[in-house]
User: What shape does this take?
Amino acid sequence: MLPEKDRLEHLREVVAVLAIALARTHGHLAWFLSGAVTVLEPVLRWRALLAEDDHAFGTVPPALEQYTEAENAVRRLQATLARITAG
Assistant: This one.
């Protein structure tokens, strides 16, 4: 299992890739990708490092279950996109 900092980094990379893909997509796939971005949006408010409230910029530390749920959502998204591109 990766440290929380690395897990959060990977999840944010997924959100970034989805945002870039969404900017270049239209139609049903754009609708699908926008839904994925919406589901993963809370990742952008998470923090993995300790911070005082006045220096946290509104971020919150997620529960470990939230990391797992987000990572599972990414796996399901990857599987679905693989099925879509396979035919």
Remarks:
- The two ends are 33 Å apart (CA to CA).
- The mean pLDDT is 95.
- DSSP finds three helices and no strands in the chain.
- Helices lie at 4-23, 28-40, 64-86.
